[in-house]
Design goal:
- This protein has six helices and seven strands; from the N terminus they run αββαββαβαββαα.
- A four-stranded mixed sheet has the order 1-7-6-5. A three-stranded mixed sheet has the order 2-3-4.
- Helix 5 runs antiparallel to helix 6.
- It starts with a helix and ends with a helix.
């Protein structure tokens, strides 16, 4: 079975925890992505920011995206997957945490991002259905 390293998208860029949500939104737009890892000044992963976070936690809450920082949206420890973990472990992690994207780390270094579509391409049909079903429920 494929590993995270084999199915991930490499070259993932972070948004700094001190950068604004507006900066994050602009970066997501420029990169054509819906989520960015939030990295600290120590280069460690602090969390994730998604386009949905921008809308619900910033705009919908009446906050100013030009002054609210990405770090303010980081909630606890980021859910990640190891670069050498197999697709089944990615499936279990996504299902357990109800996330659609996982930062891939090698040690403490961010090396890529794996999304549900990446996992779906590497799993057999019943497992794909289980993943999509698990992520589509509240």
């Amino acid at each position: 079975m494929a590993t995270a390293r084999e199915i991930m998208t490499s070259g993932t860029e972070c948004i700094g925890e001190r950068e604004t949500v507006l900066d994050a939104a602009k970066k997501m737009t420029a990169l054509g992505v819906g989520a960015l890892p939030i990295c600290g000044t120590d280069q460690k992963l602090k969390g994730m920011i998604t386009d949905r976070d921008v809308v619900t936690k910033v705009l919908g809450a009446g906050k100013d995206p030009a002054t609210c920082t990405a770090g303010e949206l980081a909630q606890g420890e980021a859910v990640t997957i190891g670069a050498d973990d197999e697709a089944e472990e990615i499936l279990r992690t996504m299902t357990a945490h109800k996330v659609r994207r996982l930062p891939v780390i090698d040690g403490h270094t961010l090396v890529g991002m794996v999304a549900t579509a990446d996992v779906a391409r590497s799993l057999n049909d019943p497992q794909v259905g289980d993943l999509l079903s698990a992520l589509s429920t509240d």
